Amino acid sequence: MAPRILVVDDNPELLSLLVQLFEDEGYEVSGVGRGAQAVDRARGQPPAAAVLDLLLPDMMGYQVADALRKQQPELPLVFITGVFKGGKHAVEARQKYAPADYFEKPFDAARLLEAVRRVAPYSKPVPAPEAAPAGGDAFEEVDLDIDVEEEGFQDPLELTGRVKVTGGNLTAEIRGANLTAAPLVPSGPAALVRPPPPPGGRPAQPRPAGVAPQSSRRGELRDNLPALITAFYLSRETGELGLQRGKVKKVVYFERGMPVFALSNLLADRFGSFLVRVGKIKPEQLEDAAAVAAASQRRTGDVLVERGLLKDTERMYYVGQQVKAIIYSLFAWEDGTWVMSFKEKAAAESIKLDAHPANLIVRGVKKLYKPERLRGMIQPEDRLIPAVAPAYQLEDVDLERWETELLPRIDGHRTVAELLALANRPEPLVQGFLVALMSLGLLERQG
């Protein structure tokens, strides 16, 4: 029987990711978000090891450790912290609890897994092949290779002209004029032509005999996109975050916690369509190039370069902007479903985005959250304070001058209404800034 691992963290998205991490290795996992719940769970289902966040809503992680050790004096402990940082805390923890390891957020999930393996060794058996579940997986049924059109009007999306990308061994920061990705208006059937996949691209890989499908965690999308992105960042995980709303499916790929690529089955998100939306090429030029690409089994981008409509040196810039646009567009989703899994598909991409998730979250919230949505997330009478255990550091975020001037005044003494008056900026702009910093875990409600 597989050893049971108790995982305790009050961040539900990070908890979900960690549970999946250990379940993929074959462990039985109990994941809880409160200290008292962890103690009760361990009493009924004694774990072989416990992974404890040190700052919990109802009690400190060290108090949980004390209670668990009373039940199981030899229980191996692994501590994770976002607030008790520095060598002193690790030394004190080792002196009192002799934990298997002590990790500071953001941490390396692979190292965390190794630490647990040392104290609760387990070799995952090779599973028998699994039949596909009846009805299939609703998320997987939506194919990224089939273009769909999104119902309803798409708002224009403003993109800064700066983008940082990597290609091969090259990392470049490319600056251009700010872009506006306008709504796409298909001009005819030719606009729906999808270019052929690149050589060695993303063909469906047959599953080796005896290997079961990789498991995943899933849930409902409810204003928690920033938390899902942050879960990958805090655990330095490599994998993918799939999001679906109706027939529209988008996937964000991560490498060691950083979002590096994105795909979509939405027609407006295709590379050629994106070039039309930002005014780089005309719709009729795309239709013509797409038809030639389909007839010659090439990519539309290659045909556009061949015809001088897109410089080869510009491709990296526009691919980076396209990836940014896909990720930003997800912040407009107020419902849907999400799936996270650990894969390394992005490794094959020749061009990758190089952007800090903190800035993507801040800009996504500020660009895409509607005023009525912001008003529902933050109330005029709320008082905000700096968070005790922020997921990011302020230096990770590019702030405007007025934002840096307002930040020291957010100390719990002023209400949101008073901060709005002090900022002397449009209400949605200030609310977007405050909600963005709350989404990063830099600010929290007092009490």
Q: What does the overall shape look like?
A: globular
Quantity of strands, as a count: 17
Average pLDDT rating: 87
Binned, the helix content reads 25-40%
Question: How far is it from the N-terminal to the C-terminal residue, by CA?
Answer: 44 Å
Radius of gyration: 24 Å
Largest beta sheet, briefly?
5 strands, parallel
Number of helices: 15
Strand content: 15-25%
Total domains:
3
Residue ranges: pLDDT <50 for 5 or more in a row? 131-138, 188-193, 198-213
Strand order of the biggest β-sheet: 2-1-3-4-5
| Structure class | alpha/beta
Blueprint of the fold:
Layout: E1 4-8, H1 12-24, E2 28-32, H2 35-44, E3 49-53, H3 61-71, E4 77-81, H4 87-97, E5 101-104, H5 109-119, E6 157-159, E7 162-167, E8 170-175, E9 179-181, E10 217-220, H6 225-235, E11 239-245, E12 248-255, E13 258-264, H7 271-277, H8 283-296, H9 300-306, H10 312-330, E14 337-341, E15 351-353, H11 357-368, H12 371-377, E16 384-386, H13 401-406, H14 416-423, H15 427-439, E17 443-445
Helix pairs in contact: 1-6, 2-3, 8-9, 10-11, 11-15, 12-15
Protein name: Two-component system response regulator
InterPro entries: Bact_response_regulator, CheY-like_superfamily, PatA-like_N, Sig_transdc_resp-reg_receiver, T2SS_E_N_sf
Region (Disordered): 185-220
